């Protein structure tokens, strides 16, 4: 999107390409549906971290959708979800008892690589952007963004460590 809409790299608050608002709105719907599904079909002790994650995303993306602002910032945040493809594939391979296969091993490597690029680096970039642009962001929105990043970053670092320990440091 930045390549096609370079103006967005200068203004993540008020500028976004056509369809971006709809994409963020649909994402809120997905996170809401997944949240309700987990509440109904999983034990709380198994899903509390993901429920917490979804709550933070729903609030932050919901603000972007309702205000029609920060949609560009939410688009950057959606880059994190690229890694979800490999996290979900990992879970499917685990459920299918295919842990000792080349497919699982290859997915583990790609999963960690995309994790670093699309989760850790993206969250670091977003935190940096928020800090550098704090004077252009209203205090309440800045507080929500800062709290969101303060929650998401450690959660993702902990999950990275768990993946690394489980798949590579056995």
UniProtKB/TrEMBL annotation:
Give the CC-aspect GO terms: plasma membrane
Q: Which InterPro entries match?
A: TLC-dom, TLCD
Q: Would the keyword DNA-binding be found if you checked this record's keyword annotation?
A: no
Q: Name one Pfam family in it.
A: TRAM_LAG1_CLN8
Please give a single GO biological process term from the UniProt record: regulation of membrane lipid distribution
Keyword terms of this UniProt record? Membrane, Transmembrane, Transmembrane helix
TM stretches of this protein: 48-67, 73-89, 109-131, 143-164
Family annotation (PROSITE patterns):
TLC
Domain TLC: start-end pairs? 1-170
Database matches in SMART domains: TLC (SM00724)
- Topology with respect to the bilayer: Multi-pass membrane protein
Q: Tell me where it resides.
A: Membrane
PANTHER family, per the entry: CT120 PROTEIN, TLC DOMAIN-CONTAINING PROTEIN 2
> Protein name, please?
TLCD2 protein
